[in-house]
Amino acid sequence: DGGITQSPKYLFRKEGQNVTLSCEQNLNHDAMYWYRQDPGQGLRLIYYSQIVNDFQKGDIAEGYSVSREKKESFPLTVTSAQKNPTAFYLCASSGMGHQGEAFFGQGTRLTVV
Amino acid sequence: AQSVTQLGSHVSVSEGALVLLRCNYSSSVPPYLFWYVQYPNQGLQLLLKYTTGATLVKGINGFEAEFKKSETSFHLTKPSAHMSDAAEYFCAVSDPGNFNKFYFGSGTKLNVKP
After folding, report:
1. Which residue of chain B is at minimal alpha-carbon distance from A110?
2. Do B100 and A90 touch (CB under 8 A)?
3. In 3D, which of A95, A97, A108, A106 has the Cα closest to residue A4?
4. Which of A43, A57, A104 to mutate to test the interface with B (most CBs of B within 10 A)?
5. Span B30-88, pLDDT tens digits
6. Which residue of B has its CA nearest to A57?
7. DSSP B37-57
């Protein structure tokens, strides 16, 4: 079945460590996104990519980095510069040039210990 | 930039009662409009969307929404709430000038009382 796979489902990080969240899609979508979700704040856009080897900062990109080396993959690295990384992270994708919706993965819950 | 406002962070209804979740957007050009549902610790699932054509849109699980350009609204309704409807609901828009950028509201948690 086509879809978006995020891994791991739960992730624990020690302060000062970088961690990478995986996002893979087999929907042949050009655009991919990372959102952060905190209680009562909805979804905030971290980074998005509309094409391979290109990506743009969203509203809260500080302390995060991404790469888009393959169409299917859009990993997110949470760096030690991110002061409050504990959150639920959602990856999404959509088709280009269509009236298409965003399709979401099941999310990764990151906790700093 | 677009913005999306969802009135009411929490809504509580009795089972069998009407569900009404409100969404207003700001845009000089009608955007594409979406409603998503999220169950705890899961991703978002599309309920329905409006792009062009008929302004009353029917979605899954008996939900529907009406696009009202004059009111810049896209409220979500369901005639009769079911316990399984308890979840968080997000309204979203995408920019017609940039089809692939989405803007989300802050969400409304729906509680359904037996």
Report:
1. B41
2. no
3. A106
4. A43
5. 788 999 999 988 999 999 999 888 889 999 999 999 999 899 999 999 999 999 999 99
6. B101
7. EE-TTS-EEEEEEE-SS-SEE
